[in-house]
């Protein structure tokens, strides 16, 4: 099963490699991992998307909690939550494709943020499914480059991950 | 007071009441060694290889409650230390390792003797630090000692670049420490403990299974009291030997791959299993699927939540310091009226005694050739069961664990988790320095001893009168045993040709060396070692039966009840 694990970690050098090293050393999957400082610059927030049985997810959260620099761990996918991912995609945009790509971007409420005579860079946010659908909607031959951020997640309503 | 980084390191060690540091100097730690030279509170033990420095500090820690300390230089000094650090990590031993690093400006430049020590050691330490500013040394050292000894203990490494050890700043050792990300649980959950006590009292076939956590938490006394209060059978794992007196009737011997028949059967057929500071290791419960076939309720007490429900599903998890939890269990039992069911317990003990009557530890002694088990029995007799026994890894380790009945904790030091050959002699050095009044024996094999034999020189320099008991069978015995049993008797590279004359080698290092060939001479040689030559290192080279195997045995991947009891079972 797919899980989204959020954690707060001391913003110190090597902290990221402690987390990624834990996953590789124990053979856990990482589908995506994002990390950036929070409003408190001494702490970073990480969102890890992983898959595994309930037993494995339990071990993952326990092992993450055991890391000395990890302040808090929550499996946000256990309850209602929101996931968002950012994608930048560079597509060929010339001739008849130029208008078609623009229309598709509008449908997905994406923004074109760089324009040349032959290409667009399109910015799109949403959950993974929406991003996948957008890629599916564009002719594969037109895609020059894609870059995705991996997801950020947050609990809905009163659920707050804070020290 | 303004001090250099190097002086601060030494002052921190003094503040932590460190008496012995095991180490080896080199370029990156020259300032630290200079500061060490100019004081006499912290004594340095110069080893002959950094691996031994870490093992010796580890042995020092295992035989006491103290944090072991090692000091090594950058590059090869640090990489040589890695095996020692990993060994301590696997057995949760509290240690602080200080390593030198190339100057900060040279980091990442492929400088001479540069390695990414923090990166290399990251997966085998509880935590590590690279100190980039002299003003951070004191707080980092304080954190290192605190992390090493609290919660589930473990080794902590502090990497200090040479320029940082040379810079100066005001020194003040922090009194307190607060880490928002690290707050180990101490007391167990009251409700869970109540549930556990209830379950224990209702048990018909109870069993207590304890591991290294009992030793690390200094909980042997509490464990003994609880076990006697309940009257239940108990087994101590390889890491937990001495947690409960081996000479007591309630003790069933060690469990697991080379455990006793009665301990394994009682583990398997129990209806309530109380696991304390143990982790259901593959060498203890064999195949987890086979273990799970028999329904039983499991209570698991451990300081580390990640140890609970890792290999087997647990019914009553209790996270907390073993000593505190056992204390609370005793309190609840003593203040309540309920007692264990006497009829059920009598029937269970009857069954256990039947298993015990198989006498699985019996071996066929000989008048012509020395049996290794016989040497251990004699070692126990001669030392009155009071020695600290260290071992290396292999057959001799199992025989020492099986035949030297440990009645007290911190008397048995071995590498249980990582299984590191070569730990025995440095462990003995650390143990002897920490416990000069106790006899210290290193039970070893001719394979293992050669992995750190250079330490005979350290023992000479620091006058460490340990007794090396080499069970010399001319084979890498445990490898040979598996090849005999599971690889068609093809002894691939397990025969050690061209062995040195160990007794002569010991004499060359300035020690007493004795070769023993006949069973009749075993006791005399041991008495000589622990008597006449009490204050000298004695190297006893016992020429033992090369064909002897360790039994009972549960083959890897098999279940606990599928034991080979002796060669006749094959």
Automatic annotation (TrEMBL), chain A:
Q: Which GO terms describe its molecular function?
A: acetolactate synthase activity; acetolactate synthase regulator activity
Record-listed E.C. numbers: 2.2.1.6
| Enzyme class, first EC level, given as a word | transferase
Q: In which pathway does it act?
A: Amino-acid biosynthesis; L-valine biosynthesis; L-valine from pyruvate: step 1/4; Amino-acid biosynthesis; L-isoleucine biosynthesis; L-isoleucine from 2-oxobutanoate: step 1/4
Record Gene3D superfamilies: 3.30.70.260, ACT-like. Chain A, domain 2
How is this protein annotated for GO cellular component? cytosol
**NCBIfam families assigned:** acolac_sm (TIGR00119), PRK11895.1 (NF008864)
What is this protein's record name? Acetolactate synthase small subunit
- Organism name: Pseudothauera lacus
TrEMBL record, chain B:
UniProt cross-references to CDD domains, sorted A to Z: TPP_AHAS, TPP_PYR_POX_like
Keywords recorded for this protein, A-Z: Amino-acid biosynthesis, Branched-chain amino acid biosynthesis, FAD, Flavoprotein, Magnesium, Metal-binding, Thiamine pyrophosphate, Transferase
Spell out the family assignment given in the record's similarity comment. Belongs to the TPP enzyme family.
Flavoprotein among the record's keywords?
Answer: yes
Which protein, by its recorded name, is this? Answer: Acetolactate synthase
Cofactor-binding details, from the entry: Binds 1 Mg(2+) ion per subunit. Binds 1 thiamine pyrophosphate per subunit.
| A Pfam match | TPP_enzyme_M
Q: What class of enzyme is it?
A: transferase
What residue stretches are annotated with the Thiamine pyrophosphate enzyme N-terminal TPP-binding domain? 4-119
Domain (Thiamine pyrophosphate enzyme TPP-binding) spans 392-541
For whether the record's keyword set contains Ion transport, the answer is: no
Any one GO CC term of this protein is:
acetolactate synthase complex
Under Enzyme Commission nomenclature, its number is 2.2.1.6
Instruction: Tell me the pathway.
Output: Amino-acid biosynthesis; L-valine biosynthesis; L-valine from pyruvate: step 1/4; Amino-acid biosynthesis; L-isoleucine biosynthesis; L-isoleucine from 2-oxobutanoate: step 1/4
Q: Which cofactor does it need?
A: Mg(2+); thiamine diphosphate
Q: Describe the reaction catalysed, as an equation.
A: 2 pyruvate + H(+) = (2S)-2-acetolactate + CO2
Taxonomic lineage: Bacteria, Pseudomonadati, Pseudomonadota, Betaproteobacteria, Rhodocyclales
Q: Name one GO biological process term.
A: L-valine biosynthetic process
Q: List, for all copies, the residue spans of the domain called Thiamine pyrophosphate enzyme central.
A: 193-328
């Amino acid at each position: 099963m797919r899980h989204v694990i959020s954690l707060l970690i001391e913003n110190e050098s090597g902290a990221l490699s402690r987390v990624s090293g834990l996953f590789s050393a124990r053979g856990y999957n990482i589908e995506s991992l994002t990390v950036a400082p929070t409003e408190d610059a001494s702490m970073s927030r990480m969102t890890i998307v992983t898959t595994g049985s309930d037993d494995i997810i339990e071990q993952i959260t326990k092992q993450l909690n055991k890391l000395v620099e990890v302040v808090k761990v929550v499996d946000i996918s256990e309850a209602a939550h929101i996931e968002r991912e950012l994608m930048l995609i560079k597509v060929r945009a010339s001739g008849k494709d130029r208008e078609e790509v623009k229309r598709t971007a509008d449908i997905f409420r994406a923004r074109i943020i760089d324009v040349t005579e032959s290409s667009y860079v399109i910015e799109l946010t949403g959950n993974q499914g929406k991003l996948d659908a957008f890629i599916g909607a564009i002719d594969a031959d037109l895609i020059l480059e894609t870059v995705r951020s991996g997801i950020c997640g947050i609990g809905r309503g009163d659920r707050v991950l804070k020290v | 007071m303004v001090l250099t980084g190097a002086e601060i390191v030494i002052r921190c060690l003094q503040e932590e009441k460190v008496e012995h540091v095991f180490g080896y100097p080199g370029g990156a730690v020259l300032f630290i060694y200079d500061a060490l030279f100019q004081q006499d509170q912290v004594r340095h033990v110069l080893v002959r290889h950094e691996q031994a420095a870490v093992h010796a500090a580890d042995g020092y820690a295992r035989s006491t409650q103290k944090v072991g300390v090692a000091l090594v230089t950058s590059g090869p000094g640090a990489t040589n230390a890695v095996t020692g650090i990993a060994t301590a990590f696997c057995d949760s031993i509290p240690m602080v390792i200080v390593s030198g690093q190339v100057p900060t400006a040279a980091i990442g430049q492929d400088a001479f003797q540069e390695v990414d020590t923090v990166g290399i050691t990251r997966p085998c330490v509880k935590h590590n630090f690279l100190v980039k500013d002299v003003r951070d040394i004191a707080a980092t050292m304080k954190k290192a000692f605190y992390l090493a000894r609290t919660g589930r203990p473990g080794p902590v490494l502090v990497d200090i670049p040479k320029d940082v050890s040379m810079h100066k700043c005001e020194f003040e050792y922090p009194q307190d420490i607060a880490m928002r990300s690290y707050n180990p649980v101490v007391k167990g959950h009251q409700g869970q403990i109540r549930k556990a006590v209830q379950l224990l009292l209702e048990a018909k076939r109870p069993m207590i299974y304890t591991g290294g956590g009992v030793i690390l938490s200094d909980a042997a006394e509490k464990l003994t009291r609880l076990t006697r209060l309940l009257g239940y059978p108990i087994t101590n794992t390889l890491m937990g030997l001495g947690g409960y007196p081996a000479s007591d009737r309630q003790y069933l011997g060690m469990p697991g791959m080379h455990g006793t028949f009665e301990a394994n059967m009682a583990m398997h057929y129990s209806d309530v299993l109380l696991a304390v500071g143990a982790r259901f290791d593959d060498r203890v419960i064999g195949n987890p699927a086979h273990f799970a076939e028999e329904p039983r309720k499991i209570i698991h007490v451990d300081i580390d939540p990640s140890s609970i429900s890792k290999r087997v599903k647990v019914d009553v998890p209790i996270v907390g310091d073993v000593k505190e939890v056992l204390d609370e269990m005793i309190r609840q039992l003593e203040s309540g009226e309920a007692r264990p069911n006497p009829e059920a317990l009598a029937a269970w003990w009857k069954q256990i005694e039947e298993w015990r009557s198989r006498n699985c530890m019996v071996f066929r002694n000989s008048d012509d050739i020395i049996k290794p088990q016989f040497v251990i029995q004699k070692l126990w007799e001669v030392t009155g069961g009071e020695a600290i026994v260290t071992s290396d890894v292999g057959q001799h380790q199992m025989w020492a664990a099986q035949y030297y009945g440990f009645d007290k904790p911190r008397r048995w030091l071995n590498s249980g988790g990582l299984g590191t050959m070569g730990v025995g002699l440095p462990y003995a050095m650390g143990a002897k320095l920490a416990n000069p009044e106790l006899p210290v024996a290193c039970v070893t094999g001719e394979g293992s001893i050669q992995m750190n034999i250079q330490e005979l020189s350290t023992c000479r320099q620091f006058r460490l009168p340990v007794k090396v008991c080499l069970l010399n069978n001319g084979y890498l015995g445990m490898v040979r045993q598996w090849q005999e049993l599971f690889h068609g008797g093809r002894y691939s590279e397990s025969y050690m040709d061209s062995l040195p004359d160990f007794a002569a080698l010991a004499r060359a290092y300035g020690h007493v060396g004795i070769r023993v060939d006949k069973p009749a001479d075993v006791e005399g040689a041991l008495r000589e070692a622990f008597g006449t030559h009490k204050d000298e290192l004695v190297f006893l080279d016992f020429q033992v039966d090369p064909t002897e195997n360790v039994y009972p045995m549960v083959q890897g991947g098999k279940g606990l009840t599928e034991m080979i009891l002796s060669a006749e079972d094959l």
